[in-house]
Specification:
alpha+beta, 3-stranded antiparallel β-sheet, 107 residues, 1 helix, 19% strand
Length: 107
């Protein structure tokens, strides 16, 4: 992967193009739909989940999603080239010369 100007050649745009929730999204937890009370409103007679339980349920749902439940890549090495020469020195901020970063990702 010597392409430093954009995504890798095998990069694929997700099917829903990040335009909203995935097709298999089950919707908000009970109590957060229309007429369910949501955050605020409603009285003690309406069962509305607390913020913490909503976040915990959302976290659990997201962690089970197939796009997130994948093996984590391992970064095997990182090299920095400044002006075409490999460097071990920190890059100044802002850089005074062109900088390229090359990352090797294992499986």
């Amino acid at each position: 992967m010597d392409n430093f100007g954009g995504p890798p050649d095998d990069f694929e745009v997700p099917p829903n193009d990040f335009g909203g929730p995935p097709d298999d999204f089950g919707g908000p937890p009970n109590g957060f739909g229309p007429g369910g009370g949501g955050l605020g409103g409603g009285g003690p007679e309406q069962a509305t989940p607390g913020f913490k339980s909503f976040i915990e349920a959302r976290r659990e749902s997201l962690l089970k999603h197939p796009e997130i439940d994948k093996p984590v890549p391992v970064i095997e090495s990182v090299s920095i080239m400044i002006a075409g020469k490999e460097s071990t020195k920190p890059v100044p901020s802002p850089p005074t010369e062109p900088v390229q970063v090359k990352v090797k990702i294992g499986k």
